[in-house]
Amino acid sequence: MACRVQHSIQSSFWFLSSTPLRNSLNPRRNFFKNRISFGTELFFSSSSRTALYCTCSSSSSGGDKDGFLTNEVGGDDSFVLTTPLYYVNAPPHMGSAYTTIAADAIARFQRLLEKKVIFITGTDEHGEKIATAAAANGSSPNEHCDVVSQAYKSLWKDLDISYDKFIRTTDPKHEAVVTEFYSRVLANGDIYRADYEGLYCVNCEEYKDEKDLLDDNCCPTHLKPCVKRKEDNYFFALSKYQQQLEEVLKQNPGFVQPSYRLNEVQGWIKNGLKDFSISRASVDWGIAVPNDSKQTIYVWFDALLGYVSALLEDRELASLDTAISSGWPASLHLIGKDILRFHAVYWPAMLMSAGIGLPKMVFGHGFLTKDGMKMGKSLGNTLEPTDLVQRFGSDAVRYFFLREVEFGNDGDYSEERFIRMINANLANTIGNLLNRTLGLLKKNCQSTLAVDSDVAAEGNEFKAAVEKLVEKACVHYQKLELSAACETVLEIGNAGNLYIDGQAPWTLFKQGGTAFETAAKDLVIVLEAMRIISIALSPITPRLSLKIYSQLGYTEEQFNAVSWSDTKWGGLKAGQVMAQATPIFARIEDGTEAETKSATTKKVKKEKPPKSKSPVEA
């Protein structure tokens, strides 16, 4: 639900009366109440976990408290991560694409670690705003949801998003899970009926405190007047779980990341939690409240359970217990910072009430701006992800946003900076290094490796430097430092360029004898570094990495079978034949470059350049 900007719901209600539901005679109440265990028992204890390091040892004492993604010892080595379920009131935008690109990179890295990854994404399709958007388009809510949900799937395909589960909250299996979950919380005595009155923002789908509004009671986010509403609804007893939530965060500081997001969450809880409404009497487009068909379940109470219902197989019996046993708890919820309160406060309390374990980590990343300004249709500066992919390709889009933005912080898009970075990093540092090395190999060695890469690098400091960088990149990936991971892998490319320039194999080949043998070894060393780059960068740029791997003589099937352990030096073997050198990433020309190139071409046509021979080199 990354498209909805949310603020303090818990402080927005005016209670006029309170009538607790009578459920003390329900035999399930005591059953589920006895199942609940608060505090650290809801997590795997820190002593039962170990950090997932790659080829490096687990000598670091980082652990999950320092932001490492961890796995339960003795478990099934599964890794479940989720994006928000995106709200379908409008087509996908760059904000939702950014979250999903990051999640995909994390999923791909975990697969390289040979984890059983379940990558969940999907769409949130209930609520007043959806019904309004559908009516404005002259369609039914179902038709509207089908169109927008498909738009998300199409964009994810264009961006090479490798999700495993796509859940829609209109899916019958999801509705069944929500209904059962609601009944559990009700049986535990945590739902009651009450009246409330307040100023309601339809776009935020929440009640606002008057002190937080602008003039004329306008929402500070959407700049539209809030409307006064009074309803008889059902409430969730969030305040009951204040102490337990405080204890969870104290015992498990890694639950909310980055650490400054944890400070925000602790501040919200410290200020006191208030119960919040989990139903709407005025909204028809939603899941009906069990035993009260006049009300529908609040979209957040509904959509958060998509992380659980998504675990069900298509033809599997839709039950809460079956879903929980299919992969819960989630290893990582990846969200925008605007919906942190729902994931780090409301959601854990809801799970506690139902006697279900908590996710292991909630990571709230920052916002994107364009040229230093907030994006918006009224400003005419929106950034359409589909347009970016069509113009520059999926790898360029993925690389720029994951390399440019320090994950967790806000980030800015500038087309000038985008083009400069992609040309420098992907076209020049990586693409040109591979192209010129393969060119030299074809010219002097018939595209065939002379020796094993292990033999070629014996006693060579370059090999040791690459191995250190691979280990460093692994740790960055583990800590969700995606920008630093990109930078570290790029350092291998920079080192490769410095190495080949320093060795000047084009000169050694001309000398013949032992110098020729040294030059042949140098090419093997650089190409082995390129092989390692292709694997280490594959979570970020999967298509580019496949192109590199293919030019090194491997098949697509071999590329799809690699793991992080294959970043160990020594993969290339003597006699291996490389493919024909073709550019793997073309430079992007901006308007200025294109004009300059055109003018230069016209000028060259008027002058006959002198004939000269030059070696194949940088």
From TrEMBL:
Keywords: Aminoacyl-tRNA synthetase, ATP-binding, Ligase, Nucleotide-binding, Protein biosynthesis
Positions of transmembrane segments: none
A Pfam family assignment: tRNA-synt_1g
Annotated region (Disordered), positions in chain: 590-618
Limits of the Methionyl/Leucyl tRNA synthetase domain: 204-438
UniProt-listed Enzyme Commission number(s): 6.1.1.10
CDD domains reported in the protein's UniProt record: Anticodon_Ia_Met, MetRS_core
Biased segments, Basic and acidic residues type: 607-618
Span of domain Methionyl-tRNA synthetase anticodon-binding: 456-595
PANTHER family found in the cross-reference section: METHIONINE--TRNA LIGASE, MITOCHONDRIAL (PTHR43326:SF1), METHIONYL-TRNA SYNTHETASE (PTHR43326)
UniProt similarity note: Belongs to the class-I aminoacyl-tRNA synthetase family.
Protein name: methionine--tRNA ligase
Organism: Solanum tuberosum (Potato)
